[in-house]
Amino acid sequence: FDDDITQGFLVEFGFEKGAKWAVNEFLKDLWHPIEEEPNLVGEEIIVEMFIDDQRYTSVYEYMKGKEFIPTLDRVRWITDWNSFKEERDNVKIKRWYYLKDLLQNN
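^ that's the sequence the OP posted. Answer follows.
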């Protein structure tokens, strides 16, 4: 390449694409389909959802079988998986993974 600006752009573009690929490659084995209910009660899970076709991720605490008492620290509890995963209005929940799997040291 004769042009330093073009070369710099291509390097930056390649780095950005490579970084996105690496993250997606790492996460692909962590995701569970929404039909698969978590089995570790008390664990935090990352949930991917789409609201009006915009992608969002949120952290929830899976608390199956626990009584939900609406306090600020329990706002993100999931106590009924079947009810939680149902598509409603413009919200579609796609998949999830355990937060601890993302943070594990290998």
